[in-house]
Write a structure and sequence with these properties.
Blueprint (H helix, E strand, L loop, with lengths): L2 H15 L12 E7 L6 E7 L1 E3 L2 E5 L10 H8 L2 E6 L2 E9 L2 H14 L2 H7 L7 E5 L1
Antiparallel strand pairs: 1-2, 1-5, 3-4, 4-7, 5-6, 6-7
GO cellular component, one term: plasma membrane
Pfam family, one: F420H2_quin_red
GO molecular function, one term: oxidoreductase activity
Amino acid sequence: MNTWQQQNEMIIKEFRAHGGTVRLGGYGPFILMTTTGAKTGQRHTTPLMYVADGDRLLAVASKAGSSTHPSWFYNLLAHPQVTVEVGTETFEAVARVLADNEREEAFAKAVEVFPFYEEYQKATTRIIPVIALER
């Protein structure tokens, strides 16, 4: 297991042990999103920071400004039905990749909460996807 996987496992364990609260170097808040693998069909749980946006949650597929999308993004493209854990609540959602003006507005909201997303976007030539998780 690599360092990234170990960190995710630690966050997942702390999230579930403390009612959805994780303290990780000032980062957060977190949700846990469980996707179905695009290639394997296996379920994968990933901790993600999120922004509340009315009745939906926004997730940003930043991968810290990497030139490639995170693996969970490909999973939800193949299987948009996901399970979301926020706080002590668990619910089923549909993941929808936002486009055009809707994406721009959602990304701006995310940058207001997490200013480093703007730096991540500057670090890559790809357009960082914003995903709406809708019940």
